[in-house]
Amino acid sequence: MIEFKGVQKTYPDGTEAIKNFNLKVQEGEMLTLIGPSGCGKTTTMKMINRLVEPSAGEIYIDGKDLKDYNIHELRWNIGYVLQQIALFPHMTVEENIAVVPEMKKWKKQQIRDRAKELMQMVGMEPSIYMKKKPSELSGGQAQRVGVIRALAADPQILLMDEPFSALDPISREGLQKDIRKLQQQIKKTIVFVTHDIDEATALGDRICLMNAGEIIQVDTPQKLILEPRNSFVRSFIGDKKSPWQTAVDIVVAQTVSHILTQTDFEAGNFDPEQAYILTSDDGQILCAVEHGKQKDILTMSNDMNVLEAVRVFEKAKASILPVAKGDELIGTVTQQELLHYLASKTEVKNGVVTQ
Ligand SMILES: Nc1ncnc2c1ncn2[C@@H]1O[C@H](COP(=O)(O)OP(=O)(O)OP(=O)(O)O)[C@@H](O)[C@H]1O
Ligand SMILES: [Mg+2]
């Protein structure tokens, strides 16, 4: 739905910010862009809404060249959240949210309903916050307003350039959860820039790792971590902290073979020695099957870290648990796999355990 074909950007001073960039972002996908400072992430984002024009190549949205769009319509259709949220200081929260819907000539009541709906979605009670001015909000609240303002007029595409980097870890985590929930509810195409590999893996359906104006690897978080293309990818990912803090979806070794559908279960089409997660034929998670017996389960969320995953296993009766991104089953993890993962990440030097 967003397609870059042979895109290059050289700024007037000669800086080659983007060199031969080719990428397709699918409809409804959340793609995280990550890479060292100055590698061209913001330039890439700004080319999508034509704040920056490519020096060569084309960008298409829904198969139509960006140059053939009316620039205002294009921008109304693309929500843009910046690192430093620039709310209009003299306007209330409600007025800030209403800016683009008003330009689109929505009816007053419709705008008000939309503002309320969005505020509730991010846990800000409209009766308290609608009439506040930006100066009366905390940093995290202002950031939330920035996000929902970008969403207000129902854009097809959302561009988010390090939207949470100025926030403390708790607000940041809260907003990450919000944005994931929003993404599941509203299915926007989102391009999300971050410096933080944990944020990139927790949020992205795919991660696009850039360096010096080029794409180094575009893959799902698991693939990027398990099959890094080169030493740059490895060292970038290698900055990850302790293995206990790694998101559990990275250690999900089995994505298909431990999943069993109801039909196959009833037909006896499985290995009784193996543990499975049983799903209905349309993919709903039901329970675990171990030695042919059904067991209750708890579902892990993909962004839980390994420590949290171990705690879930402590409470659960099964030795295999499903890992879901929102409502979608993305894989399974067994106690054994977690042990192997931790053992492989742990070294013993002179009798001392190091990570
Ligand atoms: N208007 C401009 N004129 C000249 N050079 C620019 C301009 N904007 C950006 N650059 C240069 O282009 C390169 C890419 O910049 P860009 O802002 O896209 O990087 P970034 O990946 O977003 O970095 P950061 O992580 O620090 O935000 C950098 O070398 C930057 O100095
Ligand atoms: Mg930037």
Characteristics of this structure?
355 residues; alpha/beta; Rossmann fold; CBS-domain; 2 domains; six-stranded mixed sheet; four-stranded antiparallel sheet; 34% helix; globular; binds adenosine-5'-triphosphate; binds magnesium ion; ABC_transporter-like_ATP-bd; ATP hydrolysis activity; repeat
Protein model, in words:
Its EC number is 7.6.2.9. The protein is α/β, with parallel strands linked by helices and 355 residues long. The chain folds into 2 domains: 2-241, P-loop containing nucleotide triphosphate hydrolases (Rossmann fold, 3-Layer(aba) Sandwich); 250-344, CBS-domain (Roll), CATH 3.10.580.10. It has helices at 41-48, 71-76, 93-103, 108-121, 126-129, 139-151, 169-186, 197-203, 221-226, 231-238, 262-266, 306-315, 335-344; strands at residues 2-10, 16-25, 30-34, 56-61, 64-65, 78-81, 157-161, 189-194, 206-211, 214-219, 259-261, 276-279, 285-290, 293-295, 300-301, 320-325, 328-334, 347-349, 352-354. The strands form 5 sheets. A 6-stranded mixed sheet has the order 6-7-8-3-9-10, with helices on both faces. The longest helix is centred in the middle third of the chain and has 18 residues, at 169-186. It starts with a strand and ends with a strand. The mean pLDDT is 88. Bound molecules: adenosine-5'-triphosphate and magnesium ion.
